[in-house]
Amino acid sequence: MKKVFAFVLAFLLAAPAVWGEDTLPAPEKTGGMSLLQALSERRSTREFADTDLTPQQLSNLLWAAAGVNRPDEKRVYPTALGIQDTLVYVLNREGIYKYNPVANTLTMVEKGDHRMDTTQGQGFAARAAVNLVYVHDASVWDSLRNMKGWTTPQELVIRWGYAHTGAIVQNAYLYAASQGWNSVVRGSFDQAKLSKLLKLSEGQAVTLVQSIGPRP
Ligand SMILES: Cc1cc2nc3c(=O)[nH]c(=O)nc-3n(C[C@H](O)[C@H](O)[C@H](O)COP(=O)(O)O)c2cc1C
């Protein structure tokens, strides 16, 4: 009995650290650099300060990139047929988290600094405050086909998934520029390694990765 109690206690103590869900501060949606200035400043840059973002900065960045901006839960980026099939994962010094834009929360997927696992040798990824990993979840469309009889071809679904990622990437670039941070999107990554690390399921695939953070 004592052993069972000790096991349950150990599990309860360990669980929040591994599978915890953190509520982010409400994102700041006003102020900032003008859009035209941010467009002028946007560029790919690969030097990072190895400085962490505050929870408020992270919340602002995630909202600007892929947050909800309407009561019907649609996003700051456009989505084909209004279907949200793109996920954002955050890899920072502390761990790997999945962003839930509706609840404005981060769910821990894995503990530890895995930023270098997002690259095939580009060392700056380890110094970027965050590496955002974009995932297209084509399985969302399977449910729509099964439950609603939709006939959207898979090829189109995949292309639209990349379009969604592209829009998120540009939002994140512009927000980074507006904050005076550096950023670079990356198409060079190990799909199999990242899928395993992020515990992706059938139909989910990494589309792009983006390193973002304060300048040195
Ligand atoms: C789809 C895509 C994949 C990219 N992959 C990488 C990459 O793996 N590593 C990298 O350092 N930059 C990558 N880049 C950034 C480009 O090198 C960069 O956008 C390009 O040189 C133009 O510079 P700019 O973004 O400053 O306009 C990628 C850009 C795009 C759009």
Tell me about this structure.
The structure is a single chain. The protein is of the alpha+beta class and 216 residues long. The chain is built from six helices and seven strands. It has a seven-stranded antiparallel β-sheet with strand order 1-4-3-2-5-7-6, with helices on both faces. The protein is globular, with a radius of gyration of 18 Å. Residues 7-18 have low confidence and may be disordered. Bound molecules: flavin mononucleotide. Flavin mononucleotide (FMN) is lined by residues 43-44, 46, 122, 184-188, 208.
Give a quick rundown of the structure.
The protein has one domain: NADH Oxidase. Helices cover 37% and strands 22% of the residues.
Q: What labels would you give this structure?
A:
216 residues, alpha+beta, 37% helix, binds flavin mononucleotide
Percent of residues in helices: 25-40%
Structural class, by secondary structure, is: alpha+beta
CATH class: Alpha Beta
Topology pattern, helix = H, strand = E:
HEHHEEEEHHEHE
Topology:
Blueprint: H1 2-19, E1 21-23, H2 35-41, H3 55-66, E2 86-91, E3 95-100, E4 105-111, E5 130-137, H4 139-148, H5 154-179, E6 181-186, H6 191-197, E7 204-214
Antiparallel strand pairs: 1-4, 2-3, 2-5, 3-4, 5-7, 6-7
Flavin mononucleotide binds at residues 43-44, 46, 122, 184-188, 208.
